[in-house]
Amino acid sequence: MTAAGMAVPIPPAHEAFRAQVREWLAAHLPPGGLPDPDTEEGFRAHQAWERTLHDAGYAGISWPREHGGAGGDLLHEAIFTEEYERARGPVRITRPSLRFLGPTLMRFGTPDQQRRWLPRMLRAEDVWSQGFSEPEAGSDLAGVRTRATRSGDEYVVEGQKTWTTYGRFADWIFGLVRTGSAGDRHRGLTCLAIDLRSPGVEVRPVRQVHGRTGFAEVFFSGVRVPADQRIGGEGEGWTVAMTLLSFERGPDTGGPVRSEQRLAALASDVLADLPPDAVPGVRRELGEAAARLYAYRAHTYRRLTAQWGGEPAGADSSLVKLFSSQLDVDLVTLGADLFGDARLGGGTPEHLDYWHSRAGRIYGGTAEVQHNVVADRILGLPR
Ligand SMILES: Cc1cc2nc3c(=O)[nH]c(=O)nc-3n(C[C@H](O)[C@H](O)[C@H](O)COP(=O)(O)OP(=O)(O)OC[C@H]3O[C@@H](n4cnc5c(N)ncnc54)[C@H](O)[C@@H]3O)c2cc1C
């Protein structure tokens, strides 16, 4: 009994769950995939697919039943994620909701907020996005400038968010806004749930380098947000945001599966398409990548075990992110070096993969920032 080819012991009941998931996916995955979620039609198709997953008990697998989840544990969730990636299931537009926004609401939301939002997140009736980054506040998140001013029972929001994944078609944004003065930095921040259909919200799609438009810039002018949509206390936004990021950076067992698929595809292309005398040098590089993949998977499972034991994501999640994102960049770069630009033509899966791998070193905290965390908190180096 192993986790995806390595010696991680998995209890028999969980292996039975894996078999059940495999069988269900084989029978229910949409043949031929779904249309691009960056189009209206594709997004709605993904929403319907999420509903199918929910109805089969595969949304919020480790969420408590009181919040509408399946009541499983982290290992059930991890196994489902592995099998879903292995079967190349459609991208999950509920990923932000299910992985980090919902769990943060469970921690900081009022019972009314939880009843109002969590079940709709699970069924993808409402799709949520994360509104942290701004043009002047990315790595320096405490520099957020979008302002929320209290006016009776409401906040009035002015400002701009950027790089909002799924923002184009999302219903809600989990926004980090400034309620105190700019000089307060971390202490002057608050989290608000903002309905993206509110008057004064303007969503502008951002066209990316590979031609897709899934990101959005979100502008707020005089947007009135009921005060009961504040998540956590006023001025508590930094604590809420850091908790959210610790969920976001938690172990993702889908990552090693995706890297393994990249590596396997590259190895098979090398064997099929390169002259035999070119193969030995490349074989060494592929062997190194396989060793790194093994370490990545081991670290992912180690983090999962730690999280199961109640240990929050710590500085070592920065190590895993650094390590895994660099592995993906190296694999697609090796593919591009070996097979040239032909396969990177616009719109091909290789083309998308090439650019997505670059994004992995940016979202959820850039590689440079992760290096700082490792230097500071793991190695204890002076700043
Ligand atoms: C695919 C993708 C999805 C995203 N989705 C979302 C989303 O849904 N919601 C959201 O809010 N944001 C999202 N983001 C934004 C992401 O969080 C930011 O891009 C990231 O935090 C970096 O911020 P920035 O782009 O402003 O770069 P900057 O912070 O301006 O950084 C620019 C460069 O300076 C370097 N740098 C900055 N500070 C330091 C430092 N202290 N030491 C060393 N180097 C430093 C950085 O590493 C980088 O190379 C997404 C980004 C990507 C790529």
Automatic annotation (TrEMBL):
InterPro entries: Acyl-CoA_Oxase/DH_mid-dom, Acyl-CoA_Oxase/DH_mid-dom_sf, AcylCo_DH-like_C, AcylCo_DH/oxidase_C, AcylCoA_DH/ox_N, AcylCoA_DH/ox_N_sf, AcylCoA_DH/oxidase_NM_dom_sf, Mycobact_Acyl-CoA_DH. Keywords: FAD, Flavoprotein, Oxidoreductase. Residues 12-125 form the Acyl-CoA dehydrogenase/oxidase N-terminal domain. GO terms for cellular component: plasma membrane. Residues 131-222 form the Acyl-CoA oxidase/dehydrogenase middle domain. It comes from the Bacteria. The keyword Magnesium does not apply. One of its GO terms (molecular function) is flavin adenine dinucleotide binding. Its cofactor is FAD. Residues 235-379 form the Acyl-CoA dehydrogenase/oxidase C-terminal domain. PANTHER family: ACYL-COA DEHYDROGENASE (PTHR43292), ACYL-COA DEHYDROGENASE FADE29 (PTHR43292:SF3). Belongs to the acyl-CoA dehydrogenase family. This is Alkylation response protein AidB-like acyl-CoA dehydrogenase. It comes from Petropleomorpha daqingensis.
